[in-house]
# Entry
Amino acid sequence: MSNRCVTILLFFWLVGWASPTSAQLLRQGILPEQRSLSLRSPEQFAPAPIPRTPAPATVTNPHWDAQPMSLSLSDVLQRSLENMEVVRVLSGVNATSTGRTIYDVAINNTAIDAARGTFDPNLSINNNFLNGNSPGVIPNPGDPTQSLIVGNPNDRNNFNMGLSKRMLTGGVIDFGVVGADTRLPGLISPLNPQLQSNTALQLSQPLLRGAGTEVNQAPIVIAMLDTERSYFQFKDSVQTHIESIIRGYWDLVLARTELWAREQQVRQLEFAVKRAEDRVEVGEARLGELSQARVAFENFRASLLTAEGNLLAQESALRNVLGLSPYDNDRLFPTSPLIDQKLELDWNELLTLAERYRPDIIELKLILEADQQRLLVRRNDALPQLDAVALYRWNGLEGTMPNGLDTRGTGFDDWSLGVNFSVPLGLRAARAGLRQQELLIQRDQANLQQGLHQAAHNLAIRVRNLELFYAQYERFRAVRQAATENLEQQLEIGNELEQFIVLLQAISDWGNAVSSEAQALVRYNAELAALERETGTILETHGIAFVEERFGTLGPLGRLAAPVEYPASLLPTPENGRYPSGPEPSEQQFRLIDPLEAYRLRPETEELPAPPAPEVGNSATRRSPPNVSNSQAQRVAAQPLETTRGSRTESRSNQVPPSLFRYSQR
# Structure
């Protein structure tokens, strides 16, 4: 009775040690229900310090005098890939995460080893020592009317070892050794101690369900296909990232160009306002002309403020997708020139490239391959279970007889052969699974055809857009030339209020023409990247490939084993330099020359004079990114509007597939 009490007290002590609410549990007799929310305050969570950066630039504090960071498009792509653990894409003036990381493929790759582990040998060893003393009742030899309660002590050692291996054919080989050593102290037994052992070899081979190397390796093949799918999903997200980087880079060039155009419009209106003030002072104009000029001047200043805000937003968006801080005491300064030659396309080759290289199309193909492997498994599951089994066992017994002599018995073998058969009558569940898998294959084939259909239409959209944007670029170049000539003419005349309104319209048309020309060429270059994206070749076009970064980890044997390398992440390699850095800002490709300077030139003047120094505090000249030098301005001004950068484009086209990048030389 005392031992029972001690056992009960020990049990309750263990319960109290394991649970802080054991007293309540014992009172209630059952586990309590969770009827309230257990929430921690934000201060109780582990801190994750956010990076501290300077305050971002705003229109009231734009930091135009910050140090410029000259970046070609190749530099931007390389920097974005270096900072990419989580894949980001531009969405408007912000960057969002795609949810893909460089670790996803390596994580899925571990499923292959997990599937292969089914065929690894399985070793089990059990060795137990037992001491028993069970009470028993025997007659009292001295007094038959009485009984004696005596113990039945025994010491046992049970040893059991098994080695099991599943084969690719579906069969299972089992090898086992069993030993039992029994000692009976104080008792007389035919053998004491007694050692009984047997060694068995057993084979079980399926003949129908579960038989065959292909069906047994199907889980491994499916795991490999899933890893490939993960890789191409990651590649697809990286392609979207690269396309958004290119678009963001050209949008920044466009924002800088539009800001320059708005600045020139403000300077032109400022020039007109000063001229109107001078004419009012000498009595050659009415106050209405001056008032109209001031209203127009303030409207253009408001447009300039919008352009400044757009430039800051585009730069911040590009910094976001590059993995940089919102502001870091420098300004992004694009230097790569845009492609201004027309692309010649081969429609049939575009379709072939899309079918072969688009990651989403490849993913649909991989899904179909995995479906075929699952169909193989489903067909096998619809077969009856018929297994051939075989067993051979060697038995042995040895021990010590009462006379003290040892004895050993060998050669006691047994074996068995047979077949086991079982089948659910009708095989309803298995056949339903087979029909379901066949329907899934039909569905996934339809999805593949839809993917190819949609890819063709997407390519058609890109081809139409390329033709449209390049044609618009040519038209807007002509519009800008005409607007420049018209502005020069309107600056010559303009002595009445009506004529000043015409001058105001000329200034507005000139600024819009500059912006439209830049916008058309930027959209054309962005559409080139979109075409590369639709064909699935944007990474190959820019020379980007993936390299596995590996890490070493200890194997199962710990320090005795050499470190084994496993895939940890997939990082893209640097870009190949398709877009080199130019000698001047990217926007200078649009011949950004102040029309007021051209107006002030005399017809016989051969060189452009240096532009006047900007006035302190003038909102039209607060931008600090470097302007072109006088020699650069002369060189740009000397180029006719029809001039193209044939040599520069030709050097670029040599680095990409000729089927995609053949430019006309007009």
User: Anything to note?
Assistant: Residues 213-281 form the longest helix (69 residues). The longest strand covers residues 147-166.
